[in-house]
Amino acid sequence: MTTEDLTKFFDSWVEPNGPVALHLKQKLLPVEGEGGVIFPPTYAMGENKSPYNIDTLSDGTKVATIDSVGSQANRMEPMFKLSDYAALVPQIEIEYGDSRKVSIFEVGHRLGDALIRSTNLKDEAQQAFKTLLETGNAQTIAKLAPTSLVFGVWDSRDTQAKLPRLVQSVIRAWGVDELTRSAQYNPPSDYSANDVFSDEEKAKQEGDPKSPLAKRGFVHVPSTNAPGGVISDRIEQDITVNLVALRRIQAGSEQETKKLRRYLLGLSLVAATAPLDGFLRQGCLLTPAPDVPSSWKLVKRNGQREE
Question: Which residue, among 273, 294, 297, 250, has the nearest Cα to 19 in the 3D structure?
């Protein structure tokens, strides 16, 4: 394609009657291969007594969240600090404490975060959100922190301005079974024999993980039936670029609006297609399945999907 052809091709995605989304469904594998044990994120235990977010469908299929939409966004956004992508967006660093720094790409609520409101960027960010609410113009936000538009932002503690994500990714495991694991901590020395404490204290506190001596590592402590990860039939990542949400973003004029949408589409495509580190947490290292081809689908308004 020529540059002119490419421009027309991508512009067709930002035009008012363009397609609704781009979608990728990609099979993932644990590095251990098919059937390998993976560890989902853990949460405070609910009524089902599981620390994992597992839903049971009407047919009995169990589906586990391996990485949520919010978590995936937080993994994607810091890529814009890297040298390959840094020139695409403004680089904002917040200094705090003893000359420490944090990038806005690592701040959970992006431009609407409390950390931003604690800096000299506060008034500028607040005015950008107010302009969005009053006129619908997102251009100032884009000039300050365009990834807040790509990955979504909600100024929930101040103006209440809210914009949906343009890029959404989630990883789920289907047909899961939970496993458990057990372990035993053995202290390197018999501290009671060395008169650090009495045999009576040892007998009283040994085996209780909540006892003072156990917490300090002085006595034997068993750990049984702890969460041991899951095995599943398949693991899939779904990435969606929301072209309808993109076309709702406005700037000061028709020409400026087109420029802004082009820019945000470009950032969205970079974020959605750049290779990411599959190390999600201890016990969960995933890669694309090499034997299952993945392809992007363009979803049209009538539901038709094409490569």
Answer: 297
Buried b (16+ CB within 10 A) or exposed e, 70-98: ebbbbbbbebbeeeeeeeebeebebeeee
First CA to last CA across the chain, in angstroms?
A: 16
Q: What are phi and psi of 127, to 5 degrees?
A: -65, -35
> Burial of 123 by CB count in 10 Å (0-12 exposed, 13-18 middle, 19+ buried)?
exposed
> In whole angstroms, how large is the CA radius of gyration of the chain?
25
Helices (H), strands (E): how many in the chain? 10, 15
Residue 217 burial class via C-beta count within 10 angstroms: exposed 0-12, middle 13-18, buried 19 and up: exposed
The pLDDT tens digits of the residues spanning 72-95 come to 999 999 999 999 999 999 999 999
> What is the DSSP secondary-structure string of 162-221?
EE--SEEEEEEEES-EEEEEEEEE--SS-TTTTTSS-HHHHHHHTT-TTSHHHHTT-S-E
Nearest to 305 by CA among 234, 236, 235, 240: 240
pTM of the model: 0.90
pLDDT tens digits, one per residue of 251-262: 999 999 999 999
The residue whose two tokens read 């599959």 is: 278
The dihedral over CA atoms of 89, 150, 139, 87, expressed in degrees to the nearest 10, equals 10
